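Field: COMPLEX_INPUT
Field: COMPONENT_COUNT = two
Field: RESIDUE_TOTAL = 687
Field: MODE = joint
Values follow.
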Amino acid sequence: MKEPKSKLFSQRLFRLHVAAGITFSIIMYITIFFGVFAIFLPQIQAWEKPSRYIEKVDIKDIDYNDIINSVLKNPDFPKDNILVNLPGRMGDPAVSIGNRFVKPVVFNPATQKEIKDEDKSITNLAAFLNELHYGQPLKLIGRLSFGFVAVGTMLLIITGLILIYLFKFKYKATNQQATFSTVHVKVFTWTFIPFLLITLSGAVMNVGLVSAGPMSKILTKGEASSIDGVVGTVLFPQNRPVKKENIEAKMLPLSELLKKAHEANPQLTFKQIKLLNWNDTTARADFIGYNPYKPFLNGGIFNIPYVSFNIHTGKLIENKKVLDSVVPVFIAEGIFFLHFLFGIDIFSRTLIALMMAMCGIGIGFGVMLWLEKKAKKFEGKITFYHWMGKISLATMIGVIPATAILFLLQWVLPFELEDRVLWQQGMFYNAWLATLFWSFYRINSYQASKEFFISGGILFILSVLLHWIYYNPTLLPSTILSVDIVLLFLGVLCMFIAKKLPKNRTDAKIFWSSKKRRN
Amino acid sequence: MRNSIKIILLILLQIELYSHTLVMDMMDNGDNTITVVGMFNTGESAAGAMIIVEALDSGEILFQQRLSNDNEIIIQIPTLPYKVILDGGPGHTVEKAGIAPNNGFKEVEKIVHTKTETKKQQSPSRSLMQISSSVAVTVSIILAFILLFATVVISIINTNKLMSNLNN
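Field: COMPLEX_OUTPUT
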C-alpha cells in the first residue's frame, strides 16, 4: 500500500529532526549551559575579584579630575583617547582610567585610592565561562563549530515547529517516553521565539562574521581581510581628531559636566567618559551612555549616544542621540543586542537566563527521548550501556560538578599562586573528563547522574562557604552577596534533584509516568 | 574537482576572526623624516598606540612614542636599517621595514653576521623540548590523557562484563 505523500513528508521531516537533534544537542547544550552563566557575567566578574568588594558611590559625587591627574603623572600613560569607566559599567563598582592600548588603572570611587586590580592572569572566571559559551577555548575551530551548531539549531527549531503543527500533539503523557516528548515539545513551544532570535545572533557572530573574510577580500580586491575593514567605517563611530592648541588650561570638574550632560539628555544612563586633549584649551569630554528607553537600538558596540563638552569652557559641543544613526547601524546593533543584552537590568537578565535554562532542559529531554527509544529495543535482554548515553550524561550532567569545581577553586587557590588561572582551568577540564570516566564506570547511568548532582550541589555550597570564611558575609556588598545566595540556591537545588531522581530504570518508569498522573 | 579544492583551501586559508585590525602607513617627507600614520581599519582612532623604531641589526630601540590624537607622528630617519612597529598589544602589532634616508643606510654587515651566529646557538633541540612552559598545563594534559585512557579501558571492561552476562 502506498503511503500518502503528506505522511511520508512528516516521517522524513521527523527523522531529519531526530538526526540533526542528536548531532547538535551536546554542543548546543554546552552553549546554553555556559550561556546562562555568561548572562550574569557582570555579576560574576565583580564576585571573583575581592578588590571590587567596595561601596557603591553616586557617579556624580566623584572627583574624576583628581584621579585622572594622578594617572597622567605616569609619563608612559597615553595622553589622548583616555577612557574613564564610571562605577556601574558592566557591574564594576570601581572607576577605571585607561586607553585601548594600556592596562587600566583602577580606583575606589569612595576613597579615590588606587586599587590593586586582579588582571586576567590572576582571575578570569567570568570571562572563561563566557569563552566556553562560544567555543573560544578551541579558537577558530571552536567558534566555527559552535556557530554551525547554532545554524543547525535554527533548522531544528523550524523543523520542530512544522512537526508540532503536523503531528498535533495532545500533551497527555502516560509513560516515560511520552513524558520526555511532552516536556521537549512544550518547552520549545513556549520559548522558540527568544531561542530562535538568540541562536540567530549567535550564528551571525560565530559563522557569519568569521567566514565573511574571503568575501571581504574579494569585494575589496585583497585590501580588507575581514568584514570590519569593509563595513567598519559605516558601523563604527569615526573619530575626527581635535587639533591641540598647546595652550595649557584649567579643566572644569568632570562631575559637574556629568550633571550638565544629564540635563542635556536625561534619558541616558552614563557609563563612560572619553577624554581628548586633556589640560589643553581644546580638551573635550564625550559622556557616553545607554538609553534604556530604546533597547535594541543603542548602548552596545555600534550606536553609542553621547553628550560632548569642552572641558575648559563647559560649552556643549555635541549631543548625539540614539536615533541620529543610519539604518545599518541599527540593524547591527539590534543583532548584537539580542545576544549581549547591553545595559539590561538584573530582572530581565534573570528572566532570559531562566528561559534559556528551560531550553537546555528541553534539549536534555530530547536526548533522553532518543535514548529511551534505543533502550526499549534492549528491554529485558541486556542493560542499556550506550556510548551516546554516557557522553550525554558526562556532558550534560557532568558539567555541573565540573563548573562547581571552577567556582570552588576560585577561593581554594591562593591569588599569589603562579599560573593560578591555568591550574583552575586545567582542573576544570580534568574534572569534566573525570565525569566521563565515571559515566562509563557506572553501568547504571541513573546512579551516576544522582552522584553528579549531589557532588555538584556540595561543591557549589562549599564554594560559597569558603568565600564566606575569607570574607565576612555581613560586610559584603549586596551585589556580591546575591551571587553567593544564587550559588547556594543552585547547590541546594542540585542536591534536591539528586534526592528526587530515580535510582534505576524500573524506578524511572514509575517516576516519570506517575508524575504525569498526578497532573 | 581541482577548482573546488582550490576554493575550499582559499576559504580555509583566508578566514580571519572578526576583529579590529591596526593599519600603519609610512610616508617619506623627503627631508630625512617620515610620517607614520596609524589607525584601525574601521576608521577608529589609534591614539595611545606605541610607535617603535627598532634597529634591524641589534634590535636596539631607536625611538618610541605613543600616537597622539591626530593618529600620526613625524620621525627622523635613522642612519641604520630599521623597522617601524605599531604596537597595539598582543595580536595587534604591525611591522614595516623602514624607508632609507636620502643618502642610504650605513654598512652593518659585521653586526648582522654576529647576530646570525647567536641565533644558531639558541636553536631548539629535541632534548630540550617540553609540552608547555607552564607546569599547570603539563600536569593538566598528562592527567587528561590518563583519564581518557582510563575511560576507554573501563568502557571495554564493562562491555565485556555485560556481554558475558548476556552469554550466560
